[in-house]
Write a structure and sequence with these properties.
The complex is a heterodimer. Chain A has helices at about 10-15, 35-45, 80-85, 95-115, 120-140, 145-150, 165-185, 190-195, 205-220, 225-240, 240-250, 250-265, 295-300, 335-350, and strands spanning about 20, 30, 50, 120, 200, 205, 270-275, 280, 285, 290-295, 350-365, 370-385. Chain A is an alpha+beta fold. Chain A has one domain: Cytochrome P450 (Cytochrome p450, Orthogonal Bundle). In chain A, the strands form four sheets. Chain A has a five-stranded mixed β-sheet with strand order 1-2-10-7-3, covered by helices on one side. Chain A has a three-stranded antiparallel β-sheet with strand order 4-12-11. The longest helix of chain A is centred in the N-terminal third of the chain and has 20 residues, at about 95-115. Chain A is globular and about 60 Å long. Chain A starts with 10 loop residues before the first helix and ends with a strand. Chain B is of the alpha+beta class. In chain B, about 15% of the residues lie in helices and about 25% in strands. Chain B has two helices and five strands; from the N terminus they run ββαβαββ. Chain B has helices at about 25-30, 65-70; strands at about 1-5, 15-20, 50, 80-85, 95-100. In chain B, a hairpin with a 5-residue loop joins strand 1 and strand 2 (about 15-20). The longest helix of chain B has 7 residues, at about 25-30. The termini of chain B are far apart. Classes of the chains: A alpha+beta, B alpha+beta. The interface of A and B includes residues 254, 258, 326 and 334 of A. The structure holds protoporphyrin IX containing FE and FE2/S2 (inorganic) cluster.
Chain lengths: ~375, ~100
């Protein structure tokens, strides 16, 4: 018992001063920790901008590994609003019944494989294939394409030797360039085509803009979803009674999806750049310096959540910020929520229990703060119903 | 049983009847435009913002702390703003009219 627990390493800092300063390649970051302040700063895009030098709002900073601006992520209103409008409907497709059914097929196949093996390494052999195959639905492209993404392994941007690996990033960028060129040559109805045909300020999007959207979708929807899935498996291994609860009361899946994403907070924080000198928690923030919005810390704020460190699957009031807050809130959330909803429901129908055989935790280091975000590997056996 | 009139941003009027669940759920069940309810009603997304008709406001009950905190950052907030996922459908709200904000 207990291996699925994720502590809140920010508690003392959040309740004492409300922020923490960490270094990142010589460009420090003031991490904002309290729920209210995280929301306030996320909402205040005029003072805390996303549209800084490409890569700078990401922690660790990616300024040295890319020049392409990720869209709409690294853009502020009013342009942000216009870019987002081009894709908003597309990202709501996961709510459609046929999308949900197709997801269910993919998920049931993955569960079938897990059940048919003596043991399975969940990260590489369950979460990664599932995340990749599900992404083909979001992009509206053939399922086979996911084989390429699966072959990249879990960390497109990261390798064991260094956190930021330019050569790995280039694999993705070259791939996306190739796909855009293919879409230009061959008509179709994929997200690439949708973007290439979209009108922005009375003109077509440039290739560089399409690239900026697609890089974001691949990068933003990969580790987050993989950690969400893997952590959920570890959680069910510790809590078989939760599987039974969802089986007995299928609507619990709806609140469980929100509660698990709150508890796991797969994206720990995201940066912003101050456009003017200001203060956060009475701490001076200089113009052109960085803050970050720590979703993971805000999601454990006991001024907002009762028993914040407990997983309460039917939690009714759950104003979590795991998918961000305000203008930049996650565009992939409908897809991630639908995937998790179907996964929880299918697992509860087909799996009796999960047993962890061995595990290697993935611990992030933010200055002196160490936070578990998921697993490098999690070997488990699945017992059928 | 409660009968609720929703008025969408494009002035469509939809009359919906329900017995239980949340006002957001009722709106979704009747495809009321502009109520998305992305978070399923746990108060995380703010995509269920409505204005209650002034005469009906008290029927909908007290604003919760959660709503006050969320509405602080929403657009088009008035004294009659509510998150419809936080309002229960029951006899008390029978006959109210709500306008969808988005
Ligand atoms: C559990 C899974 C996920 C989590 C926890 C998550 C979390 C987040 C967060 C916290 C933000 C806000 C960033 C900010 O404010 O700067 C965000 C934005 C975004 N996410 Fe996700 N995400 C997830 C899955 C996905 C998926 C599957 C996709 C697409 C395939 C995606 C695409 C995006 C995009 C495009 C944005 C930028 C939106 C904008 O700037 O307007 N995410 N995500
Ligand atoms: S449905 Fe998400 S806040 Fe009401």
């Amino acid at each position: 018992m207990g291996s699925s627990e994720i502590d809140d390493p920010f508690e003392v800092l959040r309740t004492s001063k409300g922020y923490e300063i960490i270094d990142d390649q010589g460009d420090p970051v003031v991490m904002v920790l309290g729920h209210k302040n995280v929301r306030r700063c996320a909402h205040n895009w005029k003072t805390f901008q996303s549209g800084a030098e490409p890569g700078r709002i990401v922690v660790p900073s990616e300024v040295n590994i890319r020049d392409t601006r990720q869209i709409p992520f690294e853009v502020d209103p009013p342009e942000h609003t216009e870019y987002r409008a081009l894709v908003e409907d597309w990202f709501r497709r996961p709510l459609q019944e046929d999308y949900k059914n197709e997801l269910k097929h993919l998920i049931d196949d993955c569960i079938f494989v897990a059940l048919s093996k003596e043991e399975i390494e969940v990260v590489e052999d369950f979460a990664l294939p599932l995340q990749s195959r599900a992404l083909t639905l979001l992009l509206n492209i053939p399922l086979e394409e996911s084989e390429t993404w699966i072959s990249w392994g879990t960390h497109v941007f990261r390798s064991e030797s260094s956190k930021l690996d330019k050569s790995k990033a280039n694999i993705l960028y070259d791939y996306i360039d190739g796909q855009i060129d293919k879409a230009i040559e061959n008509p179709g109805d994929s997200l690439y085509h949708h973007l290439l045909n979209a009108e922005y300020q009375n003109r077509k999007l440039t290739k560089e803009e399409v690239r900026g959207v697609m890089i974001l979708i691949f990068a933003g929807g990969r580790d987050t979803v993989i950690n969400y899935i893997t952590n959920t498996m570890a959680y069910f291994a510790d809590h078989p009674e939760s599987l039974s609860l969802i089986k007995k009361m299928p609507t619990v899946a709806n609140t469980a999806v929100e509660e698990l994403v709150r508890y796991f907070s797969p994206l720990t924080h995201m940066g912003r750049v101050a456009t003017e000198s200001t203060t956060v928690c009475e701490h001076a923030v200089a113009q052109d310096s960085r803050i970050s919005l720590c979703w993971a810390s805000a999601n454990r704020d006991d001024t907002v959540f009762d028993q914040p460190n407990e997983v309460i699957l039917n939690r009714k009031k759950n104003p979590h910020v795991a998918f961000g807050f305000s203008h930049h809130k996650c565009l992939g959330a409908a897809h991630a929520r639908q995937l998790m909803n179907v996964l929880l429901t299918s697992l509860s129908e087909k799996v009796e229990s999960i047993k962890v055989i061995n595990q290697a935790e993935n611990i992030e280091e933010w200055g002196a703060v160490h936070r578990k975000v998921g697993y490098h590997s999690l070997t488990a056996s699945f017992r059928p119903k | 049983m409660a009968k609720v009139t929703f008025i969408t941003k494009d002035n469509q009027e939809i009359i919906a009847e329900g017995e239980s669940g949340s006002l957001m759920g009722l709106a979704k069940a009747h495809d009321v435009n502009g109520i998305l309810g992305d978070c399923g009603g746990v108060g995380s997304c703010g995509t269920c913002h409505v204005h209650i008709a002034s005469d009906d406001f008290s029927k909908a009950g007290e604003l919760t702390e959660l709503e006050k905190d969320m509405l602080e950052f929403e657009e088009h907030v008035t004294n009659y703003s509510r998150l419809s996922c936080q309002i229960e459908v029951n006899d008390v709200i029978d006959g109210i009219t709500v306008s969808v904000v988005n």
